[in-house]
Amino acid sequence: MQWCDGFLWKDMDLARVMEYIRRLNLLQEAVKTLMNGVYNDPPRSCNQIYRRYKKLLGEAPQTGYYYIQPKLASYRVYCEMQGERKGATRVGRWAQSWDLQNITSSDNQTYEIELFSPEEQQLIHDLHFKTVHVVCDTTLQIEAQDHSFNPSIVKVIRQQSLSRRIKQQKFKINDGSEHTLVELAGCEKLRCSGREGYSAACGTGPEDNQLPARGNTTDPVVLASLLMKTGGNVKNAFTWTGTHYYLLLK
């Protein structure tokens, strides 16, 4: 048996051809099995996609967008398929260019930043996962001084409520006392502090949305949305910078 490379006829290795055909048949069966699984038993998570693919094809799928159906609704999600957190579902924001640095405005300009939409919060609620990893490079600071009221609002979700009924909290500085600063500590907590030697509003506010005590942090939380504004008072300021803030759920 011979084959043509476009110029010359060459001898063909029949054993090699048969091996290619065998591999092609195996690949077709694997694809058929995967497609049957998609239609008859839709994957409920990125981790399930990873395990099915690895079992059938012997290698990891590509990182990227896939469809999953954790409960009744289907979602298009981004799946991490390589590295340490392979099989994790990524939810949140990335490839951003947030650059609000020390904004002190007298015209009360407002900036709204949604980090998790209602649909994404429903996806988080529907997913079955055991671990939550927050990935970010962001800086968040809200500041008030001279007893000014900073109307900026930070909405967060308690991490312990992510896999159950999602519970949100709202944090804001109602009275900044002499100097109050609320900032993101790492990626998962908010810290309240004040200038040394000055009074601060830490530990105040409504019971369910009380700022942490001075120098302390909240329990682990996830930032849901930010409403950033100064209220027209130049004694207030806010900062939000970075390129990504997202969850890896597995």
Could you walk me through the main structural features you see in this protein, from its secondary elements to its overall organization?
The chain is an alpha+beta fold. The protein has helices at 14-40, 46-57, 118-126, and strands spanning 2-4, 9-11, 64-68, 75-80, 88-93, 98-103, 111-114, 132-136, 139-145, 150-158, 168-173, 179-185, 189-193, 221-228, 237-242, 245-249. It is 19% helix and 36% strand. The strands form four sheets. Strands 3-4-5-16-8 form a five-stranded antiparallel β-sheet. A hairpin with a 3-residue loop joins strand 12 (179-185) and strand 13. Helix 1 (14-40) packs antiparallel against helix 2.
Tally of individual helices: 3
Helices and strands, in order, run as EEHHEEEEEHEEEEEEEEE
Number of strands: 16
Our estimate of the beta-strand percent is 35-45%
Say what oligomer this is: single chain
Query: Are there runs of 5+ residues with pLDDT below 50, and where?
Result: none
For the biggest β-sheet, the strand order reads: 3-4-5-16-8
**Class from secondary-structure proportions:** alpha+beta
| Mean pLDDT across every amino acid position | 88
Gross geometry: elongated
The major beta sheet can be summarized as: 5 strands, antiparallel
Rg computed from alpha carbons, rounded to a whole number of angstroms: 26 Å
Helicity level = 10-25%
How many angstroms separate the termini? 52 Å
